[in-house]
Amino acid sequence: MIKTLLSSVREYKKESILAPIYVTLESILEIVIPTIMAFLIDNGINKRDMSYVIIMGLVLVLAAAVSLITGILAGRSAAVASAGFARNLRHDMFYNVQNFSFSNIDKFSTASIITRLTTDVNNVQNAFQMLVRLAVRAPMMIVFALVFSFRIDARLSLIFLATIPVLGLGTYLIMSRVHPIFVRVFRTYDKLNNIVQENLHGIRVVKSYIREDFEEKKFADVSQTIFNDFTVAEKRLAFTMPLMQLCLYGSMLLLSWFGAREIIASGNNAVIGLSTGELTSLITYAMQILMSLMMLSMVFVMIIISRASAERIVEVITEESDLKNPENPVTSVPNGSVTFENVTFSYARQTDKPVLDDITFSIASGQTVGIIGGTGSSKSSLVQLIPRLYDPVSGIVTVGGTDVKEYDLEALRKEVAMVLQKNVLFSGTIKENLRWGNENATDEEIIRACQLAQADGFIREFPDGYDTHIEQGGSNVSGGQRQRLCIARALLGRPKILILDDSTSAVDTKTDSLIRQAFRENIPNTTKIIIAQRVSSVQDADKIIVLDDGRINAIGTHEQLLETCAIYREVYESQNKGGTLHE
Protein backbone atom coordinates (compact mmCIF):
# COMPACT_ATOMS: atom_id res chain seq x y z
CA MET A 1 0.00 0.00 0.00
CA ILE A 2 2.74 2.47 0.97
CA LYS A 3 4.63 1.82 -2.27
CA THR A 4 1.48 2.50 -4.30
CA LEU A 5 0.79 5.74 -2.45
CA LEU A 6 4.37 7.01 -2.71
CA SER A 7 4.34 6.42 -6.48
CA SER A 8 1.90 9.35 -6.64
CA VAL A 9 4.41 11.80 -5.15
CA ARG A 10 6.29 12.03 -8.49
CA GLU A 11 7.25 15.65 -9.35
CA TYR A 12 6.87 16.68 -5.71
CA LYS A 13 9.76 14.51 -4.50
CA LYS A 14 11.95 17.61 -4.17
CA GLU A 15 9.57 19.33 -1.74
CA SER A 16 8.96 16.03 0.06
CA ILE A 17 12.71 15.70 0.68
CA LEU A 18 13.37 19.39 1.44
CA ALA A 19 10.68 19.52 4.13
CA PRO A 20 12.41 16.91 6.38
CA ILE A 21 15.80 18.58 5.76
CA TYR A 22 14.47 21.97 6.88
CA VAL A 23 12.77 20.27 9.83
CA THR A 24 16.08 18.64 10.80
CA LEU A 25 17.86 22.00 10.79
CA GLU A 26 15.04 23.57 12.78
CA SER A 27 15.19 20.72 15.32
CA ILE A 28 18.97 20.98 15.77
CA LEU A 29 18.73 24.70 16.40
CA GLU A 30 15.90 24.28 18.88
CA ILE A 31 17.97 21.68 20.74
CA VAL A 32 21.02 23.94 20.80
CA ILE A 33 19.09 26.96 22.13
CA PRO A 34 18.58 25.53 25.70
CA THR A 35 22.32 24.80 25.92
CA ILE A 36 23.10 28.37 24.88
CA MET A 37 20.68 29.58 27.55
CA ALA A 38 22.44 27.42 30.15
CA PHE A 39 25.80 29.00 29.24
CA LEU A 40 24.23 32.47 29.38
CA ILE A 41 22.80 31.84 32.89
CA ASP A 42 25.81 30.05 34.42
CA ASN A 43 28.67 31.99 32.81
CA GLY A 44 27.02 35.33 32.21
CA ILE A 45 24.19 36.16 34.60
CA ASN A 46 25.54 34.26 37.65
CA LYS A 47 29.07 35.74 37.11
CA ARG A 48 27.68 39.15 36.19
CA ASP A 49 29.67 39.23 32.94
CA MET A 50 27.60 41.58 30.74
CA SER A 51 29.84 41.23 27.67
CA TYR A 52 29.33 37.46 27.77
CA VAL A 53 25.57 37.98 28.25
CA ILE A 54 25.44 40.27 25.17
CA ILE A 55 27.46 37.89 22.99
CA MET A 56 25.46 34.83 23.98
CA GLY A 57 22.24 36.84 23.69
CA LEU A 58 23.10 37.70 20.09
CA VAL A 59 23.95 34.06 19.37
CA LEU A 60 20.62 33.09 20.92
CA VAL A 61 18.72 35.61 18.75
CA LEU A 62 20.56 34.42 15.62
CA ALA A 63 19.81 30.76 16.37
CA ALA A 64 16.13 31.59 17.00
CA ALA A 65 15.93 33.58 13.73
CA VAL A 66 17.50 30.80 11.67
CA SER A 67 15.21 28.28 13.39
CA LEU A 68 12.21 30.45 12.48
CA ILE A 69 13.30 30.69 8.82
CA THR A 70 13.89 26.95 8.50
CA GLY A 71 10.51 26.34 10.16
CA ILE A 72 8.78 28.57 7.61
CA LEU A 73 10.58 26.84 4.73
CA ALA A 74 9.67 23.45 6.18
CA GLY A 75 6.01 24.45 6.43
CA ARG A 76 5.97 25.77 2.86
CA SER A 77 7.66 22.66 1.43
CA ALA A 78 5.35 20.34 3.37
CA ALA A 79 2.27 22.24 2.17
CA VAL A 80 3.37 22.12 -1.48
CA ALA A 81 4.35 18.44 -1.24
CA SER A 82 1.09 17.36 0.42
CA ALA A 83 -1.12 19.41 -1.93
CA GLY A 84 0.74 18.03 -4.95
CA PHE A 85 0.54 14.51 -3.57
CA ALA A 86 -3.23 14.86 -3.14
CA ARG A 87 -3.55 16.24 -6.65
CA ASN A 88 -1.67 13.26 -8.09
CA LEU A 89 -3.74 10.81 -6.05
CA ARG A 90 -6.95 12.29 -7.47
CA HIS A 91 -5.45 12.19 -10.96
CA ASP A 92 -4.35 8.56 -10.62
CA MET A 93 -7.71 7.48 -9.24
CA PHE A 94 -9.73 9.37 -11.85
CA TYR A 95 -7.46 8.14 -14.65
CA ASN A 96 -7.87 4.53 -13.55
CA VAL A 97 -11.63 4.93 -13.18
CA GLN A 98 -11.75 5.93 -16.87
CA ASN A 99 -10.35 2.49 -17.68
CA PHE A 100 -12.90 0.67 -15.52
CA SER A 101 -15.44 -1.57 -17.12
CA PHE A 102 -19.05 -1.21 -16.07
CA SER A 103 -18.60 -4.17 -13.73
CA ASN A 104 -15.69 -2.40 -11.99
CA ILE A 105 -17.84 0.70 -11.49
CA ASP A 106 -20.68 -1.48 -10.22
CA LYS A 107 -18.26 -2.99 -7.71
CA PHE A 108 -17.34 0.37 -6.10
CA SER A 109 -20.50 2.41 -6.81
CA THR A 110 -20.47 6.03 -7.95
CA ALA A 111 -21.01 7.43 -4.45
CA SER A 112 -18.05 5.47 -3.06
CA ILE A 113 -15.72 6.65 -5.83
CA ILE A 114 -16.70 10.28 -5.14
CA THR A 115 -16.02 9.83 -1.42
CA ARG A 116 -12.61 8.35 -2.16
CA LEU A 117 -11.74 11.22 -4.51
CA THR A 118 -12.69 13.86 -1.93
CA THR A 119 -12.88 12.97 1.76
CA ASP A 120 -10.38 10.10 1.65
CA VAL A 121 -7.81 12.07 -0.36
CA ASN A 122 -8.12 15.03 2.05
CA ASN A 123 -7.44 12.71 5.00
CA VAL A 124 -4.36 11.24 3.33
CA GLN A 125 -3.16 14.73 2.34
CA ASN A 126 -3.33 15.90 5.96
CA ALA A 127 -1.53 12.77 7.15
CA PHE A 128 1.21 13.19 4.54
CA GLN A 129 1.78 16.82 5.55
CA MET A 130 2.12 15.78 9.18
CA LEU A 131 4.42 12.90 8.28
CA VAL A 132 6.96 15.02 6.35
CA ARG A 133 7.02 17.55 9.19
CA LEU A 134 5.96 16.30 12.60
CA ALA A 135 6.86 12.65 12.03
CA VAL A 136 10.42 13.80 11.26
CA ARG A 137 10.63 16.60 13.78
CA ALA A 138 9.28 14.72 16.80
CA PRO A 139 11.65 11.70 16.74
CA MET A 140 14.66 13.94 16.06
CA MET A 141 13.73 16.28 18.88
CA ILE A 142 13.35 13.31 21.22
CA VAL A 143 16.71 11.78 20.25
CA PHE A 144 18.68 15.05 20.31
CA ALA A 145 17.04 16.20 23.54
CA LEU A 146 17.82 12.87 25.22
CA VAL A 147 21.46 13.04 24.09
CA PHE A 148 21.91 16.59 25.43
CA SER A 149 20.01 15.70 28.61
CA PHE A 150 22.25 12.69 29.33
CA ARG A 151 25.30 14.89 28.80
CA ILE A 152 24.03 17.20 31.52
CA ASP A 153 22.76 14.60 34.05
CA ALA A 154 22.25 10.95 33.16
CA ARG A 155 20.35 10.07 36.36
CA LEU A 156 17.74 12.81 36.00
CA SER A 157 17.37 12.00 32.30
CA LEU A 158 16.11 8.53 33.21
CA ILE A 159 12.87 10.26 34.18
CA PHE A 160 12.23 10.93 30.47
CA LEU A 161 12.86 7.33 29.53
CA ALA A 162 10.37 6.12 32.12
CA THR A 163 7.55 8.11 30.48
CA ILE A 164 8.12 6.78 26.95
CA PRO A 165 6.80 3.20 27.53
CA VAL A 166 3.74 4.62 29.33
CA LEU A 167 2.95 6.89 26.39
CA GLY A 168 3.71 4.20 23.82
CA LEU A 169 1.46 1.59 25.43
CA GLY A 170 -1.36 4.08 25.98
CA THR A 171 -1.20 5.35 22.38
CA TYR A 172 -1.19 1.81 20.99
CA LEU A 173 -4.27 0.84 23.01
CA ILE A 174 -6.12 3.94 21.80
CA MET A 175 -5.12 3.32 18.16
CA SER A 176 -6.21 -0.31 18.19
CA ARG A 177 -9.68 0.65 19.43
CA VAL A 178 -10.25 3.64 17.17
CA HIS A 179 -9.13 2.38 13.73
CA PRO A 180 -12.06 -0.03 13.19
CA ILE A 181 -14.48 2.82 13.90
CA PHE A 182 -12.99 5.03 11.20
CA VAL A 183 -13.12 2.14 8.71
CA ARG A 184 -16.85 1.88 9.43
CA VAL A 185 -17.33 5.65 9.25
CA PHE A 186 -15.93 5.98 5.73
CA ARG A 187 -18.14 3.16 4.50
CA THR A 188 -21.09 5.05 5.96
CA TYR A 189 -19.89 8.17 4.11
CA ASP A 190 -20.37 6.18 0.89
CA LYS A 191 -23.95 5.48 1.89
CA LEU A 192 -24.51 9.15 2.77
CA ASN A 193 -23.20 10.30 -0.61
CA ASN A 194 -25.35 7.74 -2.35
CA ILE A 195 -28.48 9.04 -0.59
CA VAL A 196 -27.64 12.65 -1.52
CA GLN A 197 -26.86 11.72 -5.11
CA GLU A 198 -30.04 9.66 -5.46
CA ASN A 199 -32.15 12.42 -3.90
CA LEU A 200 -30.77 15.17 -6.14
CA HIS A 201 -31.02 13.01 -9.24
CA GLY A 202 -34.64 12.15 -8.53
CA ILE A 203 -35.70 15.41 -6.88
CA ARG A 204 -38.66 15.84 -9.25
CA VAL A 205 -40.01 12.41 -8.33
CA VAL A 206 -39.46 13.11 -4.63
CA LYS A 207 -41.44 16.34 -4.84
CA SER A 208 -44.12 14.83 -7.05
CA TYR A 209 -44.86 12.13 -4.48
CA ILE A 210 -44.37 14.51 -1.53
CA ARG A 211 -41.62 12.27 -0.10
CA GLU A 212 -39.40 15.02 1.28
CA ASP A 213 -39.97 13.85 4.86
CA PHE A 214 -39.02 10.29 3.95
CA GLU A 215 -35.80 11.46 2.25
CA GLU A 216 -34.98 13.73 5.19
CA LYS A 217 -35.37 10.79 7.58
CA LYS A 218 -33.09 8.61 5.43
CA PHE A 219 -30.45 11.33 5.42
CA ALA A 220 -30.86 12.02 9.14
CA ASP A 221 -30.49 8.32 10.03
CA VAL A 222 -27.22 7.94 8.13
CA SER A 223 -25.94 11.30 9.38
CA GLN A 224 -26.75 10.26 12.96
CA THR A 225 -24.83 7.00 12.45
CA ILE A 226 -21.75 8.98 11.35
CA PHE A 227 -22.21 11.33 14.32
CA ASN A 228 -22.45 8.43 16.77
CA ASP A 229 -19.35 6.70 15.37
CA PHE A 230 -17.31 9.89 15.37
CA THR A 231 -18.43 10.64 18.92
CA VAL A 232 -17.26 7.23 20.13
CA ALA A 233 -13.97 7.61 18.27
CA GLU A 234 -13.32 11.12 19.57
CA LYS A 235 -14.14 10.06 23.13
CA ARG A 236 -11.48 7.39 22.91
CA LEU A 237 -8.99 9.73 21.26
CA ALA A 238 -9.63 12.28 24.02
CA PHE A 239 -7.64 10.05 26.41
CA THR A 240 -4.42 10.98 24.58
CA MET A 241 -4.30 14.52 25.98
CA PRO A 242 -4.74 13.57 29.67
CA LEU A 243 -2.15 10.85 29.18
CA MET A 244 0.30 13.36 27.70
CA GLN A 245 -0.33 15.91 30.44
CA LEU A 246 0.11 13.26 33.14
CA CYS A 247 3.52 12.33 31.75
CA LEU A 248 4.49 15.97 31.11
CA TYR A 249 3.64 17.40 34.51
CA GLY A 250 4.79 14.28 36.32
CA SER A 251 8.21 14.62 34.68
CA MET A 252 8.36 18.33 35.53
CA LEU A 253 7.59 17.69 39.19
CA LEU A 254 10.20 14.93 39.44
CA LEU A 255 12.82 17.03 37.66
CA SER A 256 12.15 20.05 39.86
CA TRP A 257 12.27 17.96 43.04
CA PHE A 258 15.42 15.96 42.33
CA GLY A 259 17.11 18.82 40.42
CA ALA A 260 16.65 21.30 43.24
CA ARG A 261 18.17 18.82 45.71
CA GLU A 262 21.22 18.33 43.48
CA ILE A 263 21.72 22.10 43.08
CA ILE A 264 21.63 22.57 46.85
CA ALA A 265 23.98 19.62 47.38
CA SER A 266 26.53 20.97 44.84
CA GLY A 267 26.21 24.58 45.84
CA ASN A 268 25.08 25.48 42.31
CA ASN A 269 28.41 24.23 40.94
CA ALA A 270 28.17 22.46 37.57
CA VAL A 271 31.59 20.84 38.06
CA ILE A 272 30.62 18.79 41.10
CA GLY A 273 26.84 18.54 40.57
CA LEU A 274 24.05 20.46 38.90
CA SER A 275 23.75 24.19 38.24
CA THR A 276 20.68 26.40 37.84
CA GLY A 277 21.39 26.86 34.12
CA GLU A 278 21.67 23.12 33.58
CA LEU A 279 18.39 22.49 35.43
CA THR A 280 16.74 25.12 33.23
CA SER A 281 18.09 23.29 30.17
CA LEU A 282 16.86 19.94 31.53
CA ILE A 283 13.37 21.34 32.09
CA THR A 284 13.37 22.78 28.55
CA TYR A 285 14.53 19.45 27.14
CA ALA A 286 11.84 17.69 29.15
CA MET A 287 9.26 20.02 27.64
CA GLN A 288 10.66 19.38 24.15
CA ILE A 289 10.68 15.60 24.61
CA LEU A 290 7.17 15.42 25.96
CA MET A 291 5.82 17.95 23.44
CA SER A 292 7.43 15.86 20.71
CA LEU A 293 5.70 12.81 22.12
CA MET A 294 2.43 14.74 21.98
CA MET A 295 3.18 15.59 18.35
CA LEU A 296 3.76 11.90 17.67
CA SER A 297 0.43 11.10 19.25
CA MET A 298 -1.21 13.63 16.91
CA VAL A 299 0.54 11.96 13.99
CA PHE A 300 -0.70 8.57 15.19
CA VAL A 301 -4.26 9.90 15.44
CA MET A 302 -4.03 11.27 11.90
CA ILE A 303 -2.58 7.97 10.70
CA ILE A 304 -5.49 6.13 12.35
CA ILE A 305 -7.95 8.33 10.48
CA SER A 306 -6.07 8.25 7.18
CA ARG A 307 -5.18 4.55 7.20
CA ALA A 308 -8.73 3.52 6.33
CA SER A 309 -8.81 6.26 3.67
CA ALA A 310 -5.46 5.17 2.25
CA GLU A 311 -6.65 1.58 1.93
CA ARG A 312 -9.75 2.73 0.06
CA ILE A 313 -7.68 4.93 -2.29
CA VAL A 314 -5.26 2.12 -3.06
CA GLU A 315 -8.19 -0.17 -3.87
CA VAL A 316 -9.23 2.18 -6.68
CA ILE A 317 -5.69 2.83 -7.97
CA THR A 318 -4.76 -0.86 -8.08
CA GLU A 319 -8.10 -2.09 -9.42
CA GLU A 320 -7.62 -3.61 -12.85
CA SER A 321 -10.33 -3.41 -15.45
CA ASP A 322 -12.16 -6.64 -16.16
CA LEU A 323 -11.88 -5.74 -19.85
CA LYS A 324 -8.40 -5.63 -21.36
CA ASN A 325 -6.98 -5.40 -24.83
CA PRO A 326 -5.37 -8.59 -26.16
CA GLU A 327 -1.62 -8.61 -26.85
CA ASN A 328 -2.08 -8.05 -30.59
CA PRO A 329 -5.50 -6.42 -30.92
CA VAL A 330 -7.43 -6.08 -34.16
CA THR A 331 -7.64 -2.36 -34.90
CA SER A 332 -10.24 -2.20 -37.68
CA VAL A 333 -13.82 -3.41 -37.89
CA PRO A 334 -14.53 -4.60 -41.47
CA ASN A 335 -18.34 -4.38 -41.34
CA GLY A 336 -21.36 -4.20 -39.06
CA SER A 337 -22.32 -7.87 -38.91
CA VAL A 338 -23.07 -9.22 -35.41
CA THR A 339 -23.41 -12.78 -34.13
CA PHE A 340 -24.15 -14.27 -30.73
CA GLU A 341 -23.17 -17.91 -30.26
CA ASN A 342 -24.57 -19.63 -27.15
CA VAL A 343 -24.00 -16.51 -25.05
CA THR A 344 -24.70 -16.60 -21.32
CA PHE A 345 -24.21 -13.49 -19.20
CA SER A 346 -24.56 -12.48 -15.57
CA TYR A 347 -23.55 -9.30 -13.72
CA ALA A 348 -22.50 -11.38 -10.73
CA ARG A 349 -20.18 -14.15 -11.86
CA GLN A 350 -21.45 -16.55 -9.23
CA THR A 351 -25.20 -16.84 -9.70
CA ASP A 352 -27.72 -19.59 -10.26
CA LYS A 353 -29.85 -17.54 -12.65
CA PRO A 354 -28.04 -15.75 -15.50
CA VAL A 355 -29.32 -12.48 -16.95
CA LEU A 356 -28.97 -13.86 -20.49
CA ASP A 357 -29.16 -17.58 -21.13
CA ASP A 358 -27.97 -19.40 -24.29
CA ILE A 359 -28.48 -16.50 -26.73
CA THR A 360 -27.81 -17.33 -30.39
CA PHE A 361 -28.62 -15.16 -33.42
CA SER A 362 -26.90 -13.37 -36.30
CA ILE A 363 -27.31 -9.94 -37.92
CA ALA A 364 -26.00 -9.18 -41.40
CA SER A 365 -24.20 -5.90 -42.00
CA GLY A 366 -26.63 -3.11 -42.84
CA GLN A 367 -29.70 -4.88 -41.47
CA THR A 368 -32.23 -3.21 -39.18
CA VAL A 369 -33.06 -5.41 -36.21
CA GLY A 370 -35.67 -4.74 -33.55
CA ILE A 371 -35.49 -6.12 -30.01
CA ILE A 372 -38.67 -6.22 -27.99
CA GLY A 373 -39.68 -7.78 -24.70
CA GLY A 374 -41.20 -7.09 -21.31
CA THR A 375 -39.53 -5.09 -18.57
CA GLY A 376 -36.65 -7.10 -17.11
CA SER A 377 -36.23 -9.30 -20.18
CA SER A 378 -32.54 -8.16 -20.42
CA LYS A 379 -32.77 -6.22 -23.69
CA SER A 380 -30.24 -3.58 -22.57
CA SER A 381 -27.92 -6.24 -21.13
CA LEU A 382 -27.82 -7.98 -24.51
CA VAL A 383 -26.74 -4.97 -26.59
CA GLN A 384 -24.12 -3.91 -24.01
CA LEU A 385 -22.13 -7.03 -24.94
CA ILE A 386 -21.68 -5.80 -28.55
CA PRO A 387 -19.33 -2.83 -27.78
CA ARG A 388 -17.86 -4.97 -24.98
CA LEU A 389 -19.10 -2.90 -22.08
CA TYR A 390 -19.35 -6.29 -20.37
CA ASP A 391 -17.97 -9.70 -21.27
CA PRO A 392 -20.22 -12.79 -21.43
CA VAL A 393 -19.74 -15.56 -18.90
CA SER A 394 -19.69 -18.06 -21.76
CA GLY A 395 -20.24 -18.05 -25.49
CA ILE A 396 -18.91 -15.76 -28.22
CA VAL A 397 -20.00 -12.33 -29.46
CA THR A 398 -18.53 -11.36 -32.84
CA VAL A 399 -18.58 -8.09 -34.78
CA GLY A 400 -17.46 -8.11 -38.39
CA GLY A 401 -16.73 -11.83 -38.06
CA THR A 402 -14.20 -11.33 -35.22
CA ASP A 403 -14.64 -12.06 -31.52
CA VAL A 404 -15.08 -8.71 -29.73
CA LYS A 405 -12.40 -9.80 -27.22
CA GLU A 406 -9.82 -9.70 -30.03
CA TYR A 407 -10.48 -6.04 -30.91
CA ASP A 408 -8.77 -2.98 -29.56
CA LEU A 409 -11.45 -1.55 -27.26
CA GLU A 410 -11.17 1.98 -28.63
CA ALA A 411 -11.34 0.78 -32.24
CA LEU A 412 -14.40 -1.40 -31.51
CA ARG A 413 -16.31 1.28 -29.64
CA LYS A 414 -15.68 3.86 -32.35
CA GLU A 415 -17.55 1.62 -34.75
CA VAL A 416 -20.36 0.69 -32.34
CA ALA A 417 -22.37 3.76 -31.31
CA MET A 418 -24.87 3.38 -28.48
CA VAL A 419 -27.63 5.75 -27.55
CA LEU A 420 -28.30 4.54 -24.03
CA GLN A 421 -31.62 4.20 -22.30
CA LYS A 422 -30.64 7.02 -19.93
CA ASN A 423 -29.74 9.91 -22.23
CA VAL A 424 -26.96 12.09 -20.87
CA LEU A 425 -25.95 15.55 -22.06
CA PHE A 426 -23.17 17.60 -20.52
CA SER A 427 -23.02 21.28 -19.64
CA GLY A 428 -21.93 23.25 -22.69
CA THR A 429 -23.34 24.30 -26.04
CA ILE A 430 -25.28 22.00 -28.34
CA LYS A 431 -22.28 21.92 -30.70
CA GLU A 432 -19.92 20.95 -27.91
CA ASN A 433 -22.23 18.12 -26.86
CA LEU A 434 -22.61 16.83 -30.41
CA ARG A 435 -18.85 16.85 -30.99
CA TRP A 436 -18.52 14.12 -28.37
CA GLY A 437 -19.43 11.89 -31.31
CA ASN A 438 -16.71 13.39 -33.50
CA GLU A 439 -14.54 16.15 -32.11
CA ASN A 440 -13.44 17.20 -35.61
CA ALA A 441 -16.93 17.37 -37.11
CA THR A 442 -17.66 20.40 -39.28
CA ASP A 443 -20.75 22.55 -38.87
CA GLU A 444 -22.20 20.98 -42.02
CA GLU A 445 -21.72 17.46 -40.62
CA ILE A 446 -23.35 18.50 -37.35
CA ILE A 447 -26.37 19.94 -39.14
CA ARG A 448 -26.65 16.83 -41.33
CA ALA A 449 -26.62 14.50 -38.31
CA CYS A 450 -29.27 16.62 -36.58
CA GLN A 451 -31.45 16.52 -39.70
CA LEU A 452 -31.31 12.72 -39.70
CA ALA A 453 -32.20 12.67 -35.99
CA GLN A 454 -35.05 15.17 -36.56
CA ALA A 455 -33.33 17.61 -34.20
CA ASP A 456 -32.42 20.42 -36.61
CA GLY A 457 -35.92 21.94 -36.52
CA PHE A 458 -36.19 22.56 -32.78
CA ILE A 459 -32.51 23.60 -32.51
CA ARG A 460 -33.06 26.42 -35.01
CA GLU A 461 -36.01 27.65 -32.94
CA PHE A 462 -33.64 28.43 -30.07
CA PRO A 463 -32.39 32.07 -30.08
CA ASP A 464 -28.75 30.91 -30.17
CA GLY A 465 -29.36 27.91 -32.43
CA TYR A 466 -26.51 25.41 -32.26
CA ASP A 467 -24.70 27.64 -29.74
CA THR A 468 -27.51 27.26 -27.21
CA HIS A 469 -26.16 26.38 -23.78
CA ILE A 470 -27.20 23.01 -22.38
CA GLU A 471 -27.41 22.69 -18.59
CA GLN A 472 -25.86 19.71 -16.81
CA GLY A 473 -27.76 16.57 -17.71
CA GLY A 474 -29.75 18.44 -20.37
CA SER A 475 -32.22 19.73 -17.80
CA ASN A 476 -33.22 22.74 -19.97
CA VAL A 477 -34.47 20.64 -22.91
CA SER A 478 -37.34 18.16 -23.04
CA GLY A 479 -36.93 14.39 -22.92
CA GLY A 480 -37.69 14.02 -26.64
CA GLN A 481 -35.25 16.79 -27.57
CA ARG A 482 -32.58 15.21 -25.39
CA GLN A 483 -33.09 11.84 -27.09
CA ARG A 484 -32.79 13.32 -30.57
CA LEU A 485 -29.62 15.22 -29.65
CA CYS A 486 -28.10 11.99 -28.34
CA ILE A 487 -29.02 10.18 -31.59
CA ALA A 488 -27.39 12.97 -33.61
CA ARG A 489 -24.28 12.73 -31.44
CA ALA A 490 -24.03 9.00 -32.16
CA LEU A 491 -24.52 9.52 -35.91
CA LEU A 492 -21.63 12.01 -36.08
CA GLY A 493 -19.16 9.20 -35.44
CA ARG A 494 -20.35 7.41 -38.63
CA PRO A 495 -20.43 4.02 -36.87
CA LYS A 496 -20.83 0.70 -38.62
CA ILE A 497 -23.31 -0.37 -35.92
CA LEU A 498 -25.89 1.96 -34.34
CA ILE A 499 -27.71 0.77 -31.22
CA LEU A 500 -30.78 2.66 -30.01
CA ASP A 501 -31.69 1.45 -26.54
CA ASP A 502 -35.29 2.64 -26.20
CA SER A 503 -33.98 5.98 -27.43
CA THR A 504 -37.15 7.26 -29.05
CA SER A 505 -39.54 6.50 -26.20
CA ALA A 506 -40.04 10.23 -25.47
CA VAL A 507 -40.74 11.31 -29.09
CA ASP A 508 -44.11 11.12 -30.79
CA THR A 509 -44.85 8.31 -33.25
CA LYS A 510 -44.61 10.62 -36.27
CA THR A 511 -41.12 11.81 -35.34
CA ASP A 512 -40.14 8.23 -34.54
CA SER A 513 -41.26 7.19 -38.00
CA LEU A 514 -39.34 10.07 -39.64
CA ILE A 515 -36.16 9.05 -37.81
CA ARG A 516 -36.46 5.44 -39.00
CA GLN A 517 -37.19 6.60 -42.55
CA ALA A 518 -34.10 8.83 -42.50
CA PHE A 519 -32.00 5.87 -41.37
CA ARG A 520 -33.30 3.66 -44.19
CA GLU A 521 -32.63 6.27 -46.85
CA ASN A 522 -29.38 7.82 -45.67
CA ILE A 523 -27.40 5.18 -43.75
CA PRO A 524 -28.42 1.90 -45.44
CA ASN A 525 -25.00 0.28 -44.83
CA THR A 526 -25.08 0.89 -41.08
CA THR A 527 -26.38 -1.97 -38.96
CA LYS A 528 -29.22 -0.61 -36.83
CA ILE A 529 -30.34 -2.36 -33.64
CA ILE A 530 -33.46 -0.80 -32.11
CA ILE A 531 -34.71 -1.68 -28.64
CA ALA A 532 -38.26 -0.46 -28.22
CA GLN A 533 -41.40 -0.80 -26.16
CA ARG A 534 -43.63 0.19 -29.07
CA VAL A 535 -44.22 -2.38 -31.79
CA SER A 536 -44.57 0.48 -34.30
CA SER A 537 -40.89 1.36 -33.73
CA VAL A 538 -39.66 -2.06 -34.91
CA GLN A 539 -42.39 -3.51 -37.15
CA ASP A 540 -40.63 -2.49 -40.39
CA ALA A 541 -37.28 -4.02 -39.25
CA ASP A 542 -35.64 -6.79 -41.28
CA LYS A 543 -36.03 -9.07 -38.26
CA ILE A 544 -37.33 -8.75 -34.73
CA ILE A 545 -35.94 -10.58 -31.70
CA VAL A 546 -38.43 -11.25 -28.90
CA LEU A 547 -36.80 -11.68 -25.49
CA ASP A 548 -38.51 -13.20 -22.48
CA ASP A 549 -36.79 -13.56 -19.11
CA GLY A 550 -33.27 -13.48 -20.60
CA ARG A 551 -33.95 -16.02 -23.36
CA ILE A 552 -34.90 -15.67 -27.02
CA ASN A 553 -38.58 -16.52 -27.41
CA ALA A 554 -38.80 -15.94 -31.16
CA ILE A 555 -37.07 -14.33 -34.15
CA GLY A 556 -38.82 -13.21 -37.34
CA THR A 557 -40.45 -10.39 -39.25
CA HIS A 558 -43.46 -8.50 -37.97
CA GLU A 559 -45.87 -10.63 -39.99
CA GLN A 560 -44.21 -13.90 -39.00
CA LEU A 561 -44.24 -13.08 -35.30
CA LEU A 562 -47.89 -12.07 -35.36
CA GLU A 563 -48.67 -15.60 -36.56
CA THR A 564 -46.20 -17.62 -34.50
CA CYS A 565 -45.28 -15.69 -31.31
CA ALA A 566 -47.94 -15.30 -28.61
CA ILE A 567 -45.89 -12.76 -26.63
CA TYR A 568 -45.38 -10.48 -29.65
CA ARG A 569 -49.00 -10.80 -30.69
CA GLU A 570 -50.18 -9.94 -27.19
CA VAL A 571 -47.97 -6.82 -27.07
CA TYR A 572 -49.17 -5.76 -30.52
CA GLU A 573 -52.82 -6.19 -29.63
CA SER A 574 -52.43 -4.38 -26.30
CA GLN A 575 -50.96 -1.37 -28.09
CA ASN A 576 -53.44 -1.35 -30.95
CA LYS A 577 -56.67 -2.63 -29.40
CA GLY A 578 -56.38 -1.59 -25.75
CA GLY A 579 -55.58 -5.07 -24.39
CA THR A 580 -53.44 -5.88 -21.35
CA LEU A 581 -49.69 -5.59 -21.74
CA HIS A 582 -47.79 -8.85 -21.30
CA GLU A 583 -45.67 -8.97 -18.16
Description:
This protein folds into two domains: 2-318, ABC transporter type 1, transmembrane domain (ABC transporter transmembrane region fold, Up-down Bundle); 338-421 and 496-577, P-loop containing nucleotide triphosphate hydrolases (Rossmann fold), CATH 3.40.50.300. It has 583 residues and is of the alpha/beta class. The chain has helices spanning 2-6, 13-45, 50-98, 102-108, 110-152, 154-201, 203-208, 212-237, 240-266, 276-318, 379-383, 409-415, 430-434, 443-452, 456-461, 479-492, 509-522, 558-564, 566-577; strands at 338-345, 356-363, 368-373, 394-399, 402-403, 416-419, 428-429, 469-470, 497-501, 527-531, 543-548, 551-556. Mean pLDDT is 85; it is low at 579-583. The protein contains 19 helices and twelve strands. 63% of the residues lie in helices and 10% in strands. The strands form three sheets. It has a six-stranded mixed sheet. A four-stranded antiparallel sheet has the order 2-1-4-5, with no helix packed on it. The longest helix has 49 residues, at 50-98.
Number of domains: 2
**Helix content estimate:** 55-70%
> Which sequence of strands runs across the widest sheet?
6-9-10-3-11-12
Count of helical stretches: 19
Provide the CATH superfamily of the largest domain.
Answer: ABC transporter type 1, transmembrane domain
Task: Name the CATH class of the largest domain.
Answer: Mainly Alpha
Summed over residues and divided by their number, the pLDDT gives a mean of 85
Structural class comes to alpha/beta
- Characterize the overall form: elongated
Low-confidence stretches: 579-583
CATH architecture of the largest domain: Up-down Bundle
Number of strands: 12
CATH topology of the largest domain: ABC transporter transmembrane region fold
Subcellular location: Cell membrane
GO molecular function, one term: ABC-type oligopeptide transporter activity
Domain ABC transporter: 338-574
Protein name: ABC transporter ATP-binding protein
